[in-house]
TrEMBL record:
It comes from the Bacteria. This is Acetyl-coenzyme A synthetase. It catalyses: acetate + ATP + CoA = acetyl-CoA + AMP + diphosphate. Belongs to the ATP-dependent AMP-binding enzyme family. GO terms for molecular function: acetate-CoA ligase activity; AMP binding; ATP binding; metal ion binding.
Amino acid sequence: MSDQQNVYPVRDDFAANAWADKAKYEAMYQQSIDDPEGFWAEQAKRLDWIKAPSKIKNTSFARDNVDIRWFEDGLLNVSANCLDRHLDKRGDQTAIIWEGDNPDESKHITYRELYARTNQLANALKELGIGKGDTVTLYMPMIPEAAMAMLACSRIGAVHSVVFGGFSPDAVAQRVIGADSRLVITADESVRGGKHVPLKENVDAALTRDGTDVCKNVLVVKRTGGEIEWKEGRDVWFDELVDKQSNECEPEAMGAEDPLFILYTSGSTGAPKGLKHTTGGYLTYAAMTHQYVFDYQEGEIYWCTADVGWVTGHSYIVYGPLANGATTLMFEGVPSYPTHGRLGDIVDKHNVNILYTAPTAVRALMAHGDNVMDSSKRDSLRLLGSVGEPINPEAWEWFYRVIGNEKCPIVDTWWQTETGGIMIAPLPGATPLKPGSATVPFFGVKPALVDNEGNILEGATEGNLVLLDAWPGQARSIWGDHERYTQTYFSTYDGMYFTGDGCRRDEDGYYWITGRVDDVLNVSGHRMGTAEIESSLVAHSAVAEAAVVGFPHDIKGQGIYIYVTLSDGIEATDELKKELTQWVRKDIGPIASPDVIQWAPGLPKTRSGKIMRRILRKIAANECDGLGDTSTLADPSVVDELIEHRVNQ
Ligand code: ATP
Ligand code: MG
C-alpha cells in the first residue's frame, strides 16, 4: 500500500528553521542509541535540578526483575520547572489561554498569575493535611484550576490521579479506592456542548460506595453556580480556601523517581490500568518531545484538544508546554458546539500556530463535508498533529487540505499512556511525511517488530511492535500492582516491552501501526490488521467511519464483519453495500472481501474517542450478553442500537 501513497517532502522553510533537520535528527538519534547515558545526561540539563543527577540510566526489562530508574539520585520539583524558572524571562507572557464552552468566554493567564494561584492552592492543600506522598483525585472540567491542581500537587510532592470528567460515579469510586485518595478536587458542574454535567453530584454518589472513606475532603470549584448538595465538614469551596492563602509556597525537593501521577489507560482493550509515572524522567521526556515533535518556537500559540483526563492532556497541555515556557490553549468544550466550525473559529480567535488533535475529531468533521470550516481562515496555523488511533490516509489528506490549507505538515504521533510521551513520530524539519504512517522513532526509542515467538524481524516486514530499551518517560509500574505491570508488558517477550500493537515497517524504515494485536483478523490463514481495511472504506466518499472485526466462520476460520457510519446525507442501500464490497476487493484484494456489512449510526468508543472493537467483535459473534468491561464506553446507547440491528451471518 505504501508505494501508492503520496509522500510529502520536508518543506524548505521548516528544514531551515526547525529544531532539527534531517542531518541533526540522524546524528542525535544515533547518539541516543549508541550512548544513552551521555545523551540523556545532556538532555536532563533542560530542567532545573535542586540536585543534578549523577546516575543517569538504571533499567532492566528482564521478566523476573522489571526495574526502571532514570536520574535516580537527582532532586527537582516539577511545578518549579513549569513556573518559577520562567518568571524572570516571561512572567508576563500568557501561560494558559482558556477558551470556554461558550464562545464568548475566554481568558489569558500569565506565568506570574499561574505561579501565584498554584502556590496558593498548594498552601490550601497543606491546610487540608495533604503532604508528600499523599494521593489526590482530580475530577474536573477543562478549566485552568485543573492545571493548577496538577501543578499544586507536584509542588508539595502529592501524587495526582486525574479522572476524566465524563466518567460515572462508579469509575470515580474505583479510582479513589485504587489510589487511596485523601482528597477529591472537583467542580459544581462542568459545561460541554452547552450541557451541564453534575460533577459534584457524581462525586457525592461515588463517595457513598464501600471503601471510599479514605477520602476526607472534597474541594469544589464554583464553575456554574448550579445547585449542589453540601456535606459539612467534608466539602470545601475552592475559592474560599485558596483566596486566603499566601502566594508563596516552597517547592518540595522530590527524588527523580518519586511518583508524580497515576493515570488510567483509555480502556479500549480491557479493564483500565493505573499507570505510575515518576518525576525527573517524565518531565525531561515530555518537555523534549514537545519541543522537537511540534517544533515549538518561542512565542507560539500551541493547542492540544485533548482532555487533561488523558495522558495527552498531561504531557501536551500541561507538563511539556509549561516546562518549555510555551503558551498552551485549554478548551472547555467540544468541536461540534455551537457549530462544526468551532475548532477553526478558535484557531482564528487566538491565532493558534500548532493544533494537535485526534483522528476521531477529524473523521467527525470530514463527515460534514469540505465546507465545514468555512467560517474560519486558519492562516495562523503552521503545524498539525494527530494522536490516539491510526489516522486513515484519507482523513490525513483531508486534515492537511481542508484544515491546514495545504501548508502545514502533520505529525502523526504514536505513543501510549504507558510511554508518557511521543515515541514514533516525524520531526517536521527532518522527516518526509507519508499519510497514515507515524514514521520514525524519537530520540532514545528502539522499536522492533517480532513474530509470535519473539524473534526479531528485519527489513520491510510486519509484526508485533516491541521496544527494546527503556526511555525516561516510561511508566514505572501499575499503581500498587507491579506484578500486573510485569505480566502485561514484559511477560510476552522476555527482555522487551510489548506495546500490544501490530505494526508494519516499509522499505524506508517507516512504521505503520496496523491496529491492536488483539484485534488482528485471521482469514483463511492470512493475518490482517484492522487499519488497512478501515482506511480503504474511509477512502470511499460515502463512508465517514468504519470498524472491522472478525467473527467465527466455518470455512475461513474468521469472516470479516464491517460496521460502517455513512457521511451526512448518504442513503443506506443494499446497492451501496455491494459497491463497498467491490471497493475493498479491488483496493486490497479478494482476501479482504467483507462477509457482512452493518450500517452503524454510531460506533462504540472510549471516552477519549477510540473505537472499541472488542465490543463490536462480541456483537458480530452474537455474544451480546458478555460484553466485558463497558465502564469506559462514551455512549452505551450506541451498543444497544447495534445489537438491535445486528446482521445474522
Ligand atoms: P487500554 O490500554 O486500556 O486498552 P488504550 O490503549 O486505548 O486503552 P491509550 O494509552 O490512551 O489507551 O492509547 C494508546 C494506544 O492508542 C496505542 O497503543 C495505539 O493502539 C493507539 N494509538 C495512539 N496513537 C496512535 C497513532 N498515532 N497511530 C496509531 N495508533 C495510535
Ligand atoms: Mg493500551
